[in-house]
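Data card: per-record layout.
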Amino acid sequence: MARHDAPTFHLSSGSFQDGQTVPPAQRSGKLRAGGQDQSPQLSWGGAPAGTLSYAVTMFDPDAPGRGGFWHWAVLDLPADVTDLPAGAGAEGGRLLPPGATQLKNDAGFHGYLGAAPPPGHGPHRYVVTVHALDVAQSGLDAGTSPASLESKLSRHTLARATLTGIYERH
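The structure for this 170-residue chain is written out next.
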């Protein structure tokens, strides 16, 4: 008799595949990396029972300095939202669902900042994570720093799904 495992939490993107090069649209124009600072299209599914909301982050663990670089953080996405269109991370968040909040990225603005490793620094990983949470509202506000976000959400995280893009500037 075949055993059917429960679905696992997963994340995919129409913008780039896991482990592949981040395309120009998801690279930074603001930091002169030849891009458009457009957040990637994201789709997820298989969240565990009890998921009441989601948070989405993008982090570069290879950035120089201490602690990496936060490119994007969105909180309080309702549990019935399982995808975001490309560009949802624009400043002002007009393509985000009502109630969702973008935190300031490490460049200092509320929105998505594309991939932009320093020239000659080697390949950087851009880790996009969707966090399935057991609370409908995180209780955090737009003033929360992305660096403190994961520790504050850890007690409410039921599961995480990740997708990693790679980019290097010569």
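Known properties of this structure: DSSP finds one helix and eight strands in the chain. The CA atoms of residues 36 and 114 lie 7 Å apart.

See the next section for split statistics.
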